């Protein structure tokens, strides 16, 4: 709640301001602020006022993320149970794409992910599944802000090839990261639409390439697309 309050204020706040906002005494508030500062969320200026030292979603963004997670988690749990592989949910923010929920595979050898990870819009299946459906200006911003890096020998970084790949995602309705970010890992991602029809999120399933049989490779995209359609419907999309 303190981080929400500071994000809404948009300027440094004193201990007294934050104590009043939290409805706590100064000693209790100071303990919380010290913990947040130690974790890298807050910093103090020359007047000993506190300010955000890391990006924190605004209130309306947090509300959207809560609704997204509520709609997606049942589908994520089902996929995680049915395939015993890592299931990841990502969303678009102002100029980047970030992981917001992860259900890890229960298997010892698995593809890992973590909340808060910023994704390459041209290489990861989640990044491609979201970036491909943005307008040209926003797509260009996503690509420019992240930059172009080769994670493996299969990573595509040539601008024309990236655009062709994203056009293929729009045509097929899903994206594939075929060892483009991690050697030995394959990931499929499909877009999630908000109520107004814009693609604001994506869902993926990832696994080691040695467990990806031809039958599974053929079946996964359709299963994933069906899941994301249900999530989109849960968010109010009626297209």
Describe the structure.
With 239 residues, the protein is of the alpha+beta class. It folds into 2 domains: 2-52, Arc Repressor Mutant, subunit A (Orthogonal Bundle), CATH 1.10.10.10; 59-234, GAF domain (Beta-Lactamase), CATH 3.30.450.40. It is 45% helix and 19% strand. It has 8 helices and 8 strands; from the N terminus they run αααββαβββαααβββα. It has helices at 2-9, 15-22, 26-38, 59-83, 125-131, 136-146, 159-172, 214-234; strands at residues 42-44, 50-52, 86-92, 97-103, 118-119, 175-178, 185-193, 199-208. A 6-stranded antiparallel β-sheet has the order 5-4-3-8-7-6, sandwiched between helices. A two-stranded antiparallel ribbon has the order 1-2. A hairpin with a 6-residue loop joins strand 6 and strand 7 (185-193). Helix 2 (15-22) packs across helix 3 (26-38) and helix 4 packs antiparallel against helix 8 (214-234). The longest helix has 25 residues, at 59-83. It is elongated and about 60 Å long. The mean pLDDT is 93.
